[in-house]
Design a protein that fits this description.
Length: about 100
Amino acid sequence: MLIVAKIMAKQLKIPFWQPVVRQAQHSQKGLSRVERLENIEHQFRTIQSEKRKYKKVLIVDDVVTTGSSIHALTQALQRMGCQQISSLCIAAAHPSMK
């Protein structure tokens, strides 16, 4: 998704900023909503060397099933001082799949 986010930033003439990285890529596939929230809770860490801070941020994600990744990332960005956080996804799971 980084490629898509970078292209979007260029087209929209806005900065691309990735102050948070995912520590481990444990698959969320097949997990319940509760299991996904527990699995993802501590997987994001901020990049300490990242000095820039933005108040308004757009999260770009490929697929949203339960929203656990976006929720965890939003919390990490809020801890960094981001105030207005929006998200955009390419695809969303059908409600029956949650």
